[in-house]
Amino acid sequence: METAAFDRIVEKAYERIPARFRRRLKNIAIMVEQEPTEAQLRRTGVARRGTLLGLYEGRPLTVRSVFEPFAMPDRITIFQGPHERLARSPEHLIELVEDTIWHEVAHYFGMSEAQVRAAERERRSRKAARS
Length: 131
Fold this sequence. Notes:
alpha+beta; Zincin-like; 6 helices; globular; 52% helix
């Protein structure tokens, strides 16, 4: 898939985050990269056990102080290659990207990996109940 088309999928996934959460996202850049670097894989421990779809890098909102000086933006990186390899269809690709954006935004808000996974299960249950 062309990078521009994947970028549009990421933008639309971001726009589907409820406004009450988007309004609280400050000083954060959402980037698209083709693949994670070796350093990112090592740092997250994913190299040994799975696929890295996205990565939040920064200081979670829950540990920031109002007295902190200006900082470089936090960063959410969405990795295009792993998404495309996992997707079974164009619709599934959109769903995977949306789930990844939600996952990384949850880390921005200070949720641990265990908390994010529990919230994802609950979100999927609500989504299935609506279908």
